[in-house]
Each structure stands twice: as structure tokens, then as C-alpha cells.
């Protein structure tokens, strides 16, 4: 699907796949191209309209600068949900790099365009790497600090480079293949053509595994990491790309104004950028451009009230939160169909995707070789007991004075269902969290498929072949069901930023594999018809199934389910038992925490019992059922 259709479909203007009985008109077939042509024509005609003066062309130029800044912040704030209130710092770095290198070394502005982006991106990497693990308010405060440090550095004129409070004057203009860009109209076209290219790249990123990974993080960081997303790297990537775009905006701004000074890069500027993204709609590309237009044009139209503009924007944000929380032009996800995913070459009928995702049986056999679905694993170094897929040896985790798991040895046999049971607070979930890398054991070792996985990150462990679900369902609520499941194969895909922007052959193939795997798993758990629904709109029982499907889509050897039947009625629990047994037949190994004894006794091959962090029994279900120690742990010991 073309870039135009992608944009339009995302914002709800595109045409859905014809369902067969809908008449296909010239307009419906070509709406994307027609709207793009009209928009392009309006943009091209704008400076030449009789009532448009140079002043209004300059206003449109500044809308462009703020649109670029809004788009750059939208990556960090809108796509990933990171509160960056110091984004102007990267804008300033781009502007000052341009000013310093152009006025001292006479480097041409056009050469400085990519260089400003690179240096702003490198600066972002350096300053955000140490703080990227911070969340919410904490990150917000640190980014305010970064913004202020940059501004104060410019004022303090280090090495006589930044010109102090007066800044730097005499910056040259860009020269494109011999054409000097200096008039308002030339700058208008120069800026908006760059924005066009940026939008092209951003739309492609949005519709790639990278854009989805950003959204997974925004929706639920823990679930994203546990689904195989390297959260730290993706957050850094967002900051770096966002800073690069802000650096480009800085370069264009400096060359247009021919001067830079610290007054242009204050905290208020960062707040305005925040307003642009929130007003426009988090994660919405057209929204950021619209937000920029409002923020720039409003004070121009109502000049006499310009001093009150922040008051107005504050009020507008409050009203927006109440009446239109998604922003003026929110990103539309549901109802756009599978076409809205922006993946090329999908079958004409959605249903034809399902058989494509049918797994290759060879891949499901527990593998002891060094390659699992293309992911290179380290060599086998640990000798495990015969027939075992996972073993913990003396796994221990202490939370301060509390030993939640104490010296626990768990054995999970390949191709079987092992259940871990025990009273509330026994330490079962904590043990699961150690196995899946959410907690690092205080001591002990965890071996899986002949490798020591103790203390590895969750996204690494999942690529080794261990997937999980959570006791309290953790989905990506504002994404569609199919998008939720597409996070599963993410850890096996390799396409990077460039491949996503260029739609390389490998990337397109990978995307098709991802959506086909997701379609197959969604169908397997009976949720295919909900593929384009937002996950949060599903009933509780179906959300559980969706979470299981997401875990299955990672093609795991071991599937760990934390209380899968909790919240399900008897009928749903029975269906769940059927599904779990079918999964074992398909080749998966299952490890469950379960309180429902009917489920445990009905399907388990082996049961381990935990109480106060320790193993008190293990054996066949019928033996455990009658074990006196287990009965005492659950019911309490009778006094003599
Ligand atoms: N992050 C944490 N910080 C401190 N204590 C914790 C943490 N997570 C769990 N605990 C404590 O560790 C103990 C074991 O908790 P855990 O959730 O593993 O038990 P559980 O067997 O899964 O219980 P349930 O069946 O009720 O879910 C509890 O006393 C709990 O309060």
C-alpha cells in the first residue's frame, strides 16, 4: 500500500478494502492520491495567492519549523510515551552547531543540515543513556534539567563559542545546487519539502516493527519487555531520532533567522512543543502538524491577546482532556482493517492470511542446536538432566528481609504440563519472574535448553524460547488485537530503521511473516473476528486468550502461564483445558501456576508445591492430591 493511503487510512480518511458488495467509484479507488494532490497543490499555490503577503509566508514557514519540532517530539512523547520537557535542547544543539561551524569554519549550511542532525542525535544519546530507565515524572524533571543546562551553557559562552546572551549573528543561508535560498517563499518551500520527506519516513516507521515496538512500550513497558522488545534500546532510538529531527529544525531556523540566541530555546518553547503534540493527538503525524498550525497561527491572528497565549493553550489542553482526550486529529487504529497496518502484499482476503502463519512443525520441536528461528543462540554449555527443558537449581530471591523464594529446584520436562501450586504469597509468581528475567535471582542458577539463563534480560530470554502470560492480564490496551499479537514474533525479526523506511525486500517479507503468524495464533484461540478491535474492548475471558495467543506467537519452547483460569467461569475453564492440551500436542511445553484444582488435576503431568518460598512436595497429580503436607499448607495444620 502506498504512503498516501497509509496516512489517510490511519487518520480515518482512507478507503477500506472493498468488501465486494460496495460499488467501487473513481473517487473511492483514488481518494488517497486525489487528496494528496489537492493538499500538494494548495501548499504549492499558497505563497502565490493574491492576499498572502511575505508576512503570512513567514508564518507558514514557522508553522513548518514547529511542525518539524512537533513531529520530532511526537516520536518520544506520542509514540513511546516518554515525558520529554526539554526537547528544545536538541533544537538548540542543531541551531548552535549550524551557527558555530558556519560562522567560524564557513561550513556550508546544506552540509550542516545532516551534521546538525547527527550531532543533536549523538548529544541525545549521551545525555539520555544514563537516565533512560527513569519513568514518568522523574524523566520529565531530568529532561527539564537537560534543557536548562543547554540554555545556560549557551549563555555562559564556553570557549567563546556561543556568543553569550547575545548569541551568534551572520549565519549564511542554504545553497541548493547553486540556488541560494534566502527569500520567504524559498524558505517556505525548502522547509515544507523537508517536512514532506520526514513525514514519509515517519509514516513508514509507524507501520513497521519499530513503530509498533514504541507503541508497545507506551502501552505497557513490562509487557513489551516480556514480549521480546528491548525496551531500553527502543527508547534510546526514539530520543536519538527525535533529536535528529529537532537538530534539522535548528539548522533551518538558524539559517533563516541568520542568528541564534539562548532566548529562542527556553523552557516555554519546550512546553509549547508539548502542547503541539497533546493538542494534535499523541502519536498522530497529521495531528502534530495541525497542532503546530494552531500554536503558531493563533497568536498571529489574535495579536492583541498574544501575551495570554500560554493561558489559552493551557485552557485548550484542559478542555481537550475533558472533551477530546485523543487530541484534535487522533491516530485511528480500530476500523482501519488489516490494511491499516500498512504491510505490503497481504492477500486480498484477510482470511487467506491464516494458513500462511501455520507453523512449520520442525520449528516446534525443542531444539538443542544453536539456531532457533534465525536467532543465534550461544552454544550449549550446561548439561541438563535427561528429558528436562528447564531446571532451576537453588533459585533464591530476597526482597530486603523477606526470602520470597528459597533454594528452589524446579524441573520442567519437555513436552509435558508442569503445574506449580501453593497458597497465596508462597512465592510462585516471584519464581516465574526469575525464570523470565523480570527479577534477577539473589542466588542459584536457571538452565534452559542447555544454557544458563540466570539474570538475562526478559527480551533475551524470550528469544531463547520462553514466553509467559501475567497473573493480572497485561495487554497493550489501545492497540488492536492483531497488533497485540504481532509483538510476539518481534523478537525473531531483524529489520532496522533504515530497512523499515526503505521497505526493503527482507523487511516486507518479515512484516508479512509477522502478520501471518499473528493471524494464525489469533484464529487458534478463537479471536480472529476481533482482529481489528482494540484489546481493551474485549471481555475479560477473551483478553486472557489474547494474552496466550501473544505468547504463542513468539514460537516458544516453553509457555509459562500465571493463573490462566483466574476470572474464567467453569465453561471457559473447560475450554481452556482443551486448548492447553492441544498446545502440548502441537509441541509446546507448559508450566502453570494455578489455583483451580480441577484444572491442575485435570491436565498436569507433574505438580510441584511451594509454601513460604520452599518446595514442600512434587509428584504426580494424584499423589499430590493426597499429600498430607500439601493439605496442611492449604488448610493449616490441626492442633494436637
Ligand atoms: N516486588 C516485591 N517487593 C517486595 N516483596 C514482594 C515483591 N513481589 C512479591 N513480594 C513478596 O514475595 C512473597 C511472594 O509473593 P508472590 O507474588 O511470588 O506469591 P504467589 O505465590 O505468587 O502468591 P499469589 O498466588 O497470591 O499470587 C509475598 O510475601 C510478596 O508480598
Automatic annotation (TrEMBL):
It is a multi-pass membrane protein. The chain crosses the membrane at residues 32-49, 55-75, 82-101, 107-127, 187-205, 236-254, 266-299, 305-323. GO terms for molecular function: ATP binding; ATP hydrolysis activity; branched-chain amino acid transmembrane transporter activity. It comes from the Bacteria. Gene3D superfamilies: P-loop containing nucleotide triphosphate hydrolases (3.40.50.300). InterPro entries: AAA+_ATPase, ABC_transp_permease, ABC_transporter-like_ATP-bd, BCA_ABC_TP_C, LivM-like, P-loop_NTPase. Its main location: membrane. SMART domains: AAA. It is found in: Cell membrane. Keywords: ATP-binding, Cell membrane, Membrane, Nucleotide-binding, Transmembrane, Transmembrane helix, Transport. Residues 390-637 form the ABC transporter domain. One of its GO terms (cellular component) is plasma membrane. PANTHER family: HIGH-AFFINITY BRANCHED-CHAIN AMINO ACID TRANSPORT PROTEIN BRAE, HIGH-AFFINITY BRANCHED-CHAIN AMINO ACID TRANSPORT SYSTEM PERMEASE. This is ATP-binding cassette domain-containing protein.
